[in-house]
Amino acid sequence: MNADRHVAVVTPWYPDPQVTYAGAFVKAQVEAVAGGCSDLDVYHLKSWPVGEAGAPLDANPEVLDLHARLLARADAPLATAGGAVLHRVPTLTPRDTAWITHSDASARWLRTFLGGRPLDAPIVHAHVPITGGWAALENAAPDARVYMTEHSSFLADLLDQPAARARYEQVLERADGFFVVGEPLHDLIAATFPRFADKLEYIANPIDFRTARAEAPRSLRRWLSVAALNERKRIDYLLEAFRRCRADDPELTLTLAGDGKLRPALEALAADLGVADAVAFLGSVDPSEVPGLMASHDLFVHTSRHETFGVVVVEALAAGTPVLVSRCGGSDQVLRGIESEAGRLYDVDDDPDVLVAAYLELRERYPEKTDVDAARELLRAKYSYETVAERHFEVWDREGRR
Predict the structure, then answer these.
(1) Domain 6-206+384-396 has CATH 3.30.930.10
(2) Assuming Cys at both sites, which of 163, 219, 233, 241 could form a disulfide with 352, CB separation 3.0 to 4.6 Å?
(3) What is the mean pLDDT of residues 194-223?
(4) How many C-beta neighbours within 10 Å does residue 248 have?
(5) CA angle 362–366–371, rounded 5-degree value
């Protein structure tokens, strides 16, 4: 690492041995900017739920006291991406959905971990403003500049909670810079807090463009989805559309990389649809394996109902793989102006024939009327590690705005 920038990153999400994919985009940011920093410390506020469902955190005073005494001596720094230093901060949280309590817990346990001393970095960049952002603001030195990035797909639900909404407004007020990764988040925050609309800026998640396939796919038969197996990702919809397309082309295969509570039901659905022999459930995949996985398939298919950015869409094109993607918010922004070159966007609809028709149209014009290489280069200019790092340096090096 070099340059005269001492930065602390505060985040509730970061990969760990138990959940290797959680916060992978934060780790990517750390790797992207590390070379431009003299010191870079990452504070991972890992949530540890305690107590009975709905019970306040202070209902367990003995547990809290013991945790506080242990936490003050718990720092065991680890090397992480780009030579940065990672500090795991076990963060006791209540088993409830009130975001204000999670916000308070994040600030409380980071303060305990630091022994009551402020973060010693003059630049602090937090992820997830309601938790990481509040913890950063409450624990930064008085003269530190504090920036934050919003990625959260659950933000609309969070802002429906009055106490959390009031806290979020405080965060917006106090932050030196406030960034979103996509238009859906920008529009939601600007509509909810119009007096801060001019404070919102875009900053992208960095994408690895270092892995690319040797040659373009000759056909679009090997489908790939990289998504959690939950309702929002609509994998049941994908399986039904795949069945209909495979009836026309029995050589089609589908690989599902991702895990979740719906996996047993989706495996049963694949069997009921008669496509189990053509569908591979890989389970959770380490983020480092995703570029190679993208490069080994012919078509990336994304069926999500809503996304804040669309990291996996850019990852597919970074690997040189065409995409078939729902208009789910973030993906629209990513592919604006290059839709036909990159593959195909289709409307979010509950009728699988919408996806089927989009696939057939793309198959008809592929490869002559697509240009994945051109799309890849345009995206590299926006989302590569180098580009995103320079954007962070531009932000960090300017005067604070508080």
Answers:
(1) no
(2) 241
(3) 94
(4) 11
(5) 105
